[in-house]
Amino acid sequence: MKLRMVNLTLAALVTGLALGVGGYTFVYAKGYSYLVNDPAACANCHIMRDQFDGWVKSSHRKAATCNDCHTPPGLIPKYATKAENGFRHSFAFTTGRYPDAIHITPHDRTVTERACRKCHTDIVGMIDGPHAKAKDLSCLRCHGSVGHP
Amino acid sequence: NIMERKQEARNPFYRVVELTETTEDPAIWGKNFPLQYDDYRRTVDQVRTRYGGSEAMPRTPTLADPRSRVAQSKLEEDPRLKTMWAGYAFAKDFREERGHAYMLDDQTYTERQQVVKQPGTCLHCHASVYGPYRKQGEGDLLKGFEKMNQMPFAEARQLVTHPVACIDCHDPTTMQLRVTRPGFIEGMKALKAADGVKDYDVNATATRQEMRSYVCGQCHVEYYFKGTEKRLTYPWHKGLKVENILAYYDEVKGADGKPFKDWTHAESAAPALKAQHPEFELWSQGIHARSGVACADCHMPYKRVGAHKISDHHVRSPLLNVNRACQTCHKWPEEELKARVETIQDRTHRMRNLAMNALMDLIKDIKTAKTAGKADADLAPAQDFQRKAQFYLDFVEAENSTGFHAPQEAVRILGESIDFSRQGQVALSKVK
Amino acid sequence: NIMERKQEARNPFYRVVELTETTEDPAIWGKNFPLQYDDYRRTVDQVRTRYGGSEAMPRTPTLADPRSRVAQSKLEEDPRLKTMWAGYAFAKDFREERGHAYMLDDQTYTERQQVVKQPGTCLHCHASVYGPYRKQGEGDLLKGFEKMNQMPFAEARQLVTHPVACIDCHDPTTMQLRVTRPGFIEGMKALKAADGVKDYDVNATATRQEMRSYVCGQCHVEYYFKGTEKRLTYPWHKGLKVENILAYYDEVKGADGKPFKDWTHAESAAPALKAQHPEFELWSQGIHARSGVACADCHMPYKRVGAHKISDHHVRSPLLNVNRACQTCHKWPEEELKARVETIQDRTHRMRNLAMNALMDLIKDIKTAKTAGKADADLAPAQDFQRKAQFYLDFVEAENSTGFHAPQEAVRILGESIDFSRQGQVALSKVK
Ligand SMILES: [Ca+2]
Ligand SMILES: [Ca+2]
After folding, report:
1. pTM of the model
2. Residue A3: its pLDDT value, please?
3. Chains touching chain C, criterion 3+ CB pairs below 8 Å
4. Which of B81, B82, B53 shows the shortest CA–CA distance to B393?
């Protein structure tokens, strides 16, 4: 499953480069920001500015960078997500085809939810622990704004 | 110290004792879960908010009623309630509700018990009945329920010991939430059937998030005792809105073959209905329910205790706990959040007063017409308006959030109540 | 393309032309701000939502009224409105409002103009009057306002050219928002005075966020023409709630020394009041205003055009623009957000209908009593109830969000309206 995604995204990235659209953005608009860990890099795209400004004032500024919450752990999945998002967002950015109020995708939402659970294992244990068979409670339902309001 | 906390955190619960389906006493559960138990016991606290919480009124214990503290009387706060309920037990004694710790005593000793012979059904929501039901039913919950419903209250009362306890909301082995109340199980089945879902089984189907409201919906709902078996029934067969519930009561017939009534109004002879604590029903019409916010989110918010993060089992008014109950979702200052609630409540309360005045006027007019010897048939339309008006009004009056659980809906209901009362007066005035 | 955008972002505005206090024509402003101008011109679009937007109804232009499209008639949608306004110009023609582009034409050609001789005051809110006021006042805005108020409409109409234009909301040199309307400036002064703030000057004091509502509050408000000078007045001297405004009208006297009235009802002779588009007033009672959400946040949300983030000058129903208007703050899907608004609106609309029925009943009863020859003094209480009931009802009916701007308050007002209407009937029935 994961491998398939990598393949798909790599293929997409290659196609994008071939088209010259994503690729151009990737270089000129600093799309490669996706590959580094510095939150300021995300803010290279001005539409990430609100989130960046919010993050700077958030409780997590000292605890987590954008990537800590928005990419899955592990090298391959991490870069797969980055490549996938990097391509999709570069493409969107270049064509301008994205909504004004950006929304996290359902897939990326689960990535983020997993990130919370990874850092806060102790608490997760208490919240989900005794409820052996019960479904998880979504952290984001109550804490959606911890990274950036 | 940090080391210790990390330890605690990793293995947050020590299974000191084995809990089973027959472990009723919360103190035993408390050995495994001391933090939850400590909070659970704090529901004895009495603190008043503008419209909620409760006030501890000292009283001299008697043999018949050993309570040394009760909550304030609502009848004294607003004597119009006595007129609304004339001829019904509620006109005798009706108090602000208080914490869970008191539920069994308050039910046992309310003066309403002196006026009417109540059935065992009552205990469904005022005691830990899961054990007793199973015992009486020889392992079959439903059978025990049916059996205890039909006992006189005093007899059934002997079979229970605790107010709502851990076992009523939790599975003793997994600690998962569960619904143990037949009233709710059957009520949800009827509700879902109306939506075309057959044989809905709440314990098998509901999500964890839903369960965080359903465990409360076991009791915080409108109800009536159906038929001679006094079967506890939640009137949700046509839906959860006030008009759906009234339509249901209009449709089911009482012993007299006429639309079901709780009692005949003493002053007007109207076939009256009493609404009771429809928190679950009103909440379901509000923006919070629609946003997936559960009862437990506000009334049992998470709290930190050392390295633990637990659900606050000190169930109470969220206005006494705004920081945890509201501020994770709403980043407004505490005072501002309180003011928002109170703005909503003040508006609801104002409308409730107008609706109450309208109802008083109608009752007075019917009474006058009756005294003047008007024919029953001439009074009937006005009496039906009274039935409607007072059920609508009571739906908000008896609901305990003073409108907060669904602000616009609460005021909509009160507006319609006013319309019914005043139309009743007009109908009467057209009688020659 | 990206190159271009980075460029743009750095230097967002090209000052192609010099704008001054006498540059009236928005097309000239559009040279400097083509993006805003493009959107501004799109207010000609007509799209209907469940309760808002507007529908383009074709009509055959005549010499007297050259419009080839109008908005749907509200009188045809609900003929009860004609009864409510019997004897007043609104019973002749009342339509759904549409985009800003139409304001001048719709005012000029409404059939209401054929029934009553209107003063120049009308133009305050239907034209770009900042230039004309200053011209007529020889530089003095207030003087020009006073002068044009007293002209006949047709005469004043000659002095204006554009519907609301850039200059009405913006300072031409700084582009900062500003209030140019004497009605609002004086209204806010009266409102603040009631709170103990002396000589409030909105342009000097208001914050930027406040201004994002105040520029709309210049026109989207309840008003009346005071005295023989026909001075445009916003009745906020006692506050912004419906009861404050009614109390104000009860206190100020008309030419006859009695409480101010807009007209005498043709069927009942009640001293009636007409409420008009109190968007600003109702919004001020809602949760959004309380949370600092301005009119412009929803009706002129930010949008991206290339690298620019501009305010959408296509002012319209936010339901036609949910992503930008709502989803910046609410992470719910678009369909869900629409459904939330419609749930609120459906409830409001239902109550509006009940209030309308109650009013119809009252008017009929008064009419019958009048025909039966009841004395004026006997009718007076019922007529006063009608005055109140219909002002309250109209306050929500004439407000254009169908309750959304303050859901609970809207329904509260309608509930009180019902109470007034029905009490009027009861009062009448007690007349022998
Ligand atoms: Ca209480
Ligand atoms: Ca419209």
Report:
1. 0.94
2. 40
3. A, B
4. B81
Residue B320 confidence (pLDDT) above 50 = yes
CA of B400 to the centre of ligand 1 (A): 7
Q: Scanning the structure block, which residue is given the tokens 């009723």?
A: B24
Chain A partners (3+ C-beta pairs within 8 A): B, C
Please give the average per-residue pLDDT across B4-9, as a whole number: 45
Q: In the prediction, which pLDDT does A42 show?
A: 86
Contact residues, chain A, for B313 at CB < 8 Å: none
Type of residue at C292: G
Looking at beta carbons, which residues of chain B come within 8 Å of A128?
none
Distance from C-alpha of C265 to C-alpha of C273, rounded to nearest angstrom: 9
pLDDT above 90 coverage of chain B, percent: 93
Our CA-based measurement puts residue A130 at a distance from the nearest CA of chain B, in whole angstroms, of: 6
pLDDT band at A80 (very low <50, low <70, confident <90, very high): confident
Closest residue on chain C to B349 (Cα): C412
Name chain C contacts of B344, Cβ cutoff 8 Å: 408
Angle among Cα C218, C303, C298 to the nearest 5 degrees reads: 40
Instruction: Name, in order, each residue with C-beta under 8 angstroms of B85's C-beta and a sequence gap of 6 or more.
Output: B91, B94, B274
Q: Is the pLDDT of residue C329 over 50?
A: yes
Each residue's pLDDT tens digit, B45-82: 999 999 999 999 999 999 999 999 999 999 999 999 99
In CATH, the number for domain A39-143 is 1.10.3820.10
Task: Pick the ligand that lies closest to the CA of residue C45.
Answer: 2
Answer left, alpha or beta for residue B179, where phi above 0 means left and psi between -120 and 50 means alpha: beta
* Structure tokens given for C270: 């009640």
Sequence ranges of the domains in chain A: 1-35, 39-143
Q: Distance (Å, rounded) from C-alpha B369 to C-alpha A31?
A: 83
Task: Compare CB distances from C414 to B291, B340, B415 and report the shortest one's residue.
Answer: B415
Strand partners, C56: C71
Q: Which residues neighbour C187 within 8 Å (Cβ) at sequence distance 6 or greater? A: C221, C233, C234, C236
For an interface test with A, the pick among B29, B175, B312 (most A C-beta atoms closer than 10 Å) comes out as B175
Can you tell me the distance from the alpha carbon of A19 to that of B89, in angstroms, rounded to the nearest whole number?
81
Q: Rg of the Cα trace of chain C? A: 23
Q: CB of C100 within 8 A of CB of C39?
A: no
Q: What is the DSSP string of C176-193?
A: -B----HHHHHHHHHHHH
pLDDT digits 0-9 by tens, B165-182? 999 999 999 899 999 999
